[in-house]
Amino acid sequence: MIPVTKTFFPPLEEYQNQLKRIWDNEWLTNRGELVKELEGSLKNKLEVPNITLTANGTLPIQIALKILAKGGEVITTPFSYVATTSAIIWENCTPVFVDIHPEYLTIDERKIESAITSKTKAILATHVFGNPCNVDEIEKIAQKYKLKVIYDAAHSYGVKYREKSIFNYGDISTCSFHATKLFHTGEGGAMFCNDEKLNHELFYSHNFGHNGPEDFHGVGINAKMSELQAAMGISVLPYLTKIIEERKRIITFYNYNLNFSQIRRLLIRKNTLWNYSYYPIIFPSEKKLLKVKEILNKENIFPRRYFYPSLNTLNYVKNEPMPISENIANTVLCLPVYYSLGDDKLTKIISIINKNV
Ligand SMILES: *Cc1c(COP(=O)(O)O)cnc(C)c1O
User: Which structural domains are found in the chain, ordered by start?
Assistant: First the structure.
């Protein structure tokens, strides 16, 4: 079977060595030695001023919205994983969708201003497939209208834009370290923030609001990463450069060998150091996509419709038509990319697509 992605498993012995530390410490959670070590390593590697590790990649979005959007309207993208929209609803905010750019697939910044109302508090945009939003223009709009900017950077581990970590843009950025993501801790995530005061608020919010054992800064939730999760992260991290190189090899192979007369691929924004996190291709029609998907499935190859459906069509939001996002969601398919996916399998996938599109 060839799935869209396969979780990278570090050598078991290396994971066991990390677990041994947990057993020696007799300390499983509440910001132990391993969580703090992983935070330190990631901070250095990513060149970010602050990082707080979390239990998953959804809680940091909710915390960011709770603090910055405060129940108001949130301008957001309809083309993302469902968590981007559901977090807005979960925090009792109102999503206001703005359609996406047809080639970058990120929120179309040229359409943001006309969606702003007196109730707008924040912009929550996704660097979808690790492709950066137009962060410069979004920053300008946010300053002009005094809005906060949150980036769902769940796909963006290791991405740099203008030689800076993508996590350094916006008021708050979040990432996911879920097992299907590029860097993973099984379940896990992180939040990033350059402003010390806001970072402090994020930090105490992820730990019940604690200010020491008997005092509280304010309201909070439990979003802490455990030592068991950090053990996985510490074991996976040394392999990241290799993992990204492997994925680059696979994507380069697709780029050279797929026939792009009918299908098209993602346009990566200029000045981006990309992370090869996904390989979406866009078909000329949904019918063609379904046909190719069915033939691939018969051969035990399982690409995924990331992201389908367009989030403005969810049954719990007010549906305003988003023609570009709906069209992309109907015609996009992410091809298999994972460590150890060999040329023979790639050749098979490519020949099926080239023959049937
Ligand atoms: C994976 C993902 C999330 C959620 O992350 P979890 O770690 O699974 O909670 C949020 N947003 C996007 C865009 C994602 O792809």
Answer: 2-237 (3.40.640.10), 239-356 (3.90.1150.10)
The pLDDT score that the predictor gives to residue 99 is 98
160-161 and 164-165 strand pairing:
antiparallel
Helix axes 59-68, 82-90, angle to 10 degrees: 50
Cβ atoms of 228 and 28 within 8 Å: the answer is yes
Question: How does pLDDT run across 83-127, given as a tens digit for each residue?
Answer: 999 999 999 999 999 999 999 999 999 999 999 999 999 999 999
Residue 287, Cβ density class (10 Å: 0-12 exposed, 13-18 middle, ≥19 buried): exposed
CA distance 104 to 112: 16
Nearest atom in ligand 1 to the alpha carbon of residue 59 is 9
Is 80 a pocket residue for ligand 1 (Cβ < 6 Å)?
yes
Comparing CA positions, the residue from 53, 49, 31 lying closest to residue 191 is 53
Q: Which of 7, 53, 54, 58 for a ligand 1 pocket mutation test, highest count of atoms within 8 Å of Cβ?
A: 58
- Structure-token pair, residue 170: 């916006």
